[in-house]
Amino acid sequence: MRIFGIYQADRGFMTELGYLVGKIRGTTHCQLCDITHNIAWTKAEWRKMNNRLTIPVETLHLDDRSSKMTTFTKGKTPCVIAEEGGVFRILVNAEDLEACNGDVAKFEKKLDSAL
Question: Does residue 5 contact residue 83 with C-beta atoms inside 8 Å?
């Protein structure tokens, strides 16, 4: 099994910069990013949690997804999914990520429950 957290953003310097500006202005929002990052840096709590997990969460941007993953997650990002034997399933949806309010410990509880 593999676990993927998928951001609601593409990768790239200009995209990341645009997201950062939008975040500061309050015009851009990604619930998963709120959990994993403090503005532009990965939270220490996230790194510690991910190191504790038996199966760490691999984070991906929208343009990092495979075509099969893109089809499965279309309109569902940000989210956390599991892939096992080529089959995907949602573990944590955008609403559940939002309910975490950026709190890594809350996210970890939701992930544990889903697994």
Answer: no
Write the CB contacts of 106 (distance below 8 Å, at least 6 apart in sequence): 99, 100
pTM here is: 0.88
pLDDT digits (tens, 9 = 90+) for 3-58: 999 998 877 776 666 666 666 676 677 899 899 988 778 999 999 999 999 999 99
Q: Which structure tokens are listed for 49?
A: 């949690």
| Amino acid letter, residue 72 | F
Roughly what angle, to the nearest 10 degrees, separates helices 104-114 and 44-52?
30
H-helix or E-strand spanning residue 87 = strand 87-92
